[in-house]
Amino acid sequence: MFKANRLVLAIAAATLTTSVFAAPAGTLATVNGVAIPSSKAELFIKELTARGQKDTPELRAQVKDELIKNEVIYQNALKKDLAKNPEVQMQMDMMKQRILIGADINAFVKANPITDSELRKEYDKIKVNFASKEFKARHILVPTEAEANAIIVDLKKGKKFDELAKAKSMDKGSATNGGDLGWANPNNFVKEFGSALAALPKGKMTDKPVKTQFGFHIIKLDDVREAKGPSFEEAKGELMQQMQAQEVQNYVNELVKKAKID
């Protein structure tokens, strides 16, 4: 109901203004004789659709309604001479500066596009970091070394790791799955745990408790595999953002370097 009312108001306002004033071509509406250009509405529509909204007649009616209201308030502010207020002037100057900064940065990015070959070269440099291993491990976490040693004895006697994890582990998140931690890089764990895990042969467990800030762990390594990093296509978008950001930073640094600053 609210959207429908706004749409009716927008149409009514447009009908009133166009019947009284001869609106120039490319004019969305006129308010007290002042034309609102259609290009302003198109800019708003472009920004909104870039954020995921659909370009619909209803959206256009809402944008028109808002622009008319903005113009009414703007004219009222001018009548009150608010533009002469020192604080308002400072805010207007700051806003103008932000807009021009954004325009300059956008112009630089447009004039200096990152090519696919440059992206590929950067990807080839960083993909060597993907060549690591992932470990599928499980653990049992207990508060004391004595309890951990007792569990190791039970495991060596043939008791099942997953059953002991369910019964005794303080890590309830993994305990319900028999202590399973899933696939992970050892660097994702605290140093003591990760180092002990990386040193284990596949299928083996630690023969001594591993102490960390959380308590004492018995760790078992179930499997090892090569870690698969993102493909070029998967990494392309993020790489583009990173490289553009670096190019912009270099551009700004160069401008500052050339500027005379006292």
From TrEMBL:
Annotated membrane-spanning segments are: none
Which residues are in the PpiC domain? 132-223
* InterPro entries, sorted: PPIase_dom_sf (IPR046357), PPIase_PpiC (IPR000297), PPIase_PpiC_CS (IPR023058), PrsA_foldase (IPR050245), Trigger_fact/SurA_dom_sf (IPR027304)
Signal sequence range: 1-22
UniProt EC number = 5.2.1.8
Q: Which Gene3D superfamilies match?
A: 1.10.8.1040, 3.10.50.40
Please give the coiled-coil regions recorded for this protein: none
Q: Which reaction does it catalyse?
A: [protein]-peptidylproline (omega=180) = [protein]-peptidylproline (omega=0)
Q: Does the keyword Isomerase apply?
A: yes
UniProt keyword list: Isomerase, Rotamase, Signal
Signal as a keyword?
yes
Question: Listed GO molecular functions?
Answer: peptidyl-prolyl cis-trans isomerase activity
Q: Which family does it belong to?
A: Belongs to the PpiC/parvulin rotamase family.
User: How is this protein named in the record?
Assistant: peptidylprolyl isomerase
Species per Swiss-Prot/TrEMBL record: Deefgea piscis
